[in-house]
């Protein structure tokens, strides 16, 4: 199944793309945006594997947006202007579809994307240098991740049994690309939580099942991550 997100500054174009996607088998539109900044604020936390980006947009064009999208999410560009084609393919995108878009042409692009998505399915473990050497960590054992207080380049992983392992020199962008998006969410600039570790969720705070002193660990939700989290929980 291809789960896609649409970004286009024109609402009519979004509606038309949604209509086309509904006519293509094994394609689901997860969310649509008409603002590049809102799109970038949320895209890392959305469970999708393909992004359909319009190129010609005010403020920030699709080519600029694409540079900030995790490699795990494949990109299909749409535009009415053929002069962007060479620059678009320099970004190693899946396809470049000219407007007005036809269903058959879009289906071809999704077929290409589907093959790439199948080849890049995430493993159920991550492998990285840690405080105990090169280590394999199974993602279903991860409860919580936070920026190290000793060195902000490092990330402290708390496992379900309470063990803590330090990932050395790894930023959140690359770490999130390793983790299955459906199982984890970034809640602020310094913390990621496994969804299975969430006990109570509100608009400002998450209470986890992770013990802390005589209670449970509480996480404050950052403004930049609030919309994506609310969407995950259908709020």
TrEMBL record:
SMART domains: LytTR, REC. Gene3D superfamilies: 3.40.50.2300, LytTr DNA-binding domain. The keyword Phosphoprotein applies. It comes from the Bacteria. InterPro entries: CheY-like_superfamily, LytTR_DNA-bd_dom, Sig_transdc_resp-reg_receiver, WalR-like. The modification 4-aspartylphosphate is found at residue 54. Residues 3-114 form the Response regulatory domain. This is Response regulator transcription factor.
